[in-house]
Write a structure and sequence with these properties.
The chain is mainly α. The protein has one domain (16-35, 45-156). Helices cover 80% and strands 0% of the residues. It has six helices and no strands. The chain has helices spanning 9-12, 17-41, 43-74, 86-92, 94-107, 112-156. Helix 2 (17-41) runs parallel beside helix 5 and helix 3 (43-74) runs parallel beside helix 6. It is elongated.
C-alpha cells in the first residue's frame, strides 16, 4: 500500500484523464499515419526511418501499459507532469510533434528521414523514462513494504 506521501489516481479525482488519453491516442495515430504514408510514398528513402518511428510507438504503448499496471497495483501516480523537457512533453502531446513533422516533411520530403528519426528517438526516450519511473515506483513500494513487515515483526518480539 502507498504511504501518506503518495497520491493515487483515485484520490486526485483526475477529471483530465480522458482528454489526456485522447490526446495520446491521437498523437499515436497521427504519427503512425505519418510513418506509413511517407514509407508508402517513397519506400527506398523512408522505409527505415518509418520503421524506427513505428517501433518507437510500440515501445511507448508498452511503456504506457506497464505504467498503468504499476499505477493500478501500487496506487502511485506514474504520469509525467509539468517537466520542462521536450522528450517527456512529447509523451502527452505527441500529436503536436506529428503535425510539425508532417508539415515540415510535406514541404521538404527529403527531410522526412531526419525528422522521423529524431521523433522516433524522442518518443523512445520518453518511453524509457516512463519505464524507469515505473520500475522505481515498484522498487520503492517493495522496500517500504519490507520495512513495514520488518518493523511489525520487531515490535512483536519486544525489540
Amino acid at each position: 500500500m502507498p504511504n501518506a506521501s503518495h497520491r493515487s489516481a483515485l484520490e486526485t479525482g483526475r477529471p483530465d484523464r480522458l482528454p489526456l488519453a485522447a490526446g495520446t491516442a491521437l498523437g499515436a495515430l497521427l504519427t503512425l499515419g505519418l510513418a506509413v504514408g511517407f514509407a508508402w510514398w517513397n519506400p527506398a528513402q523512408n522505409r527505415w526511418p518509418a520503421l524506427a518511428l513505428v517501433l518507437a510507438l510500440c515501445l511507448d504503448a508498452a511503456a504506457r501499459i506497464v505504467a498503468r499496471a504499476v499505477r493500478q497495483r501500487t496506487g502511485v501516480e506514474t504520469e509525467f507532469r509539468g517537466l520542462p523537457s521536450p522528450m517527456l512533453a512529447l509523451g502527452n502531446a505527441a500529436w503536436i510533434a506529428a503535425v510539425v513533422v508532417a508539415i515540415a516533411a510535406g514541404l521538404r520530403p527529403t527531410l522526412f528521414p531526419l525528422l522521423a528519426s529524431a521523433l522516433a528517438g524522442l518518443i523512445a526516450m520518453g518511453a524509457c523514462a516512463r519505464l524507469a519511473l515505473a520500475r522505481m515506483v515498484v522498487v520503492i513500494e517493495a522496500a517500504e513494504r519490507a520495512a513495514a513487515e520488518a518493523k511489525g515483526k520487531g515490535e512483536g518480539t519486544g525489540r
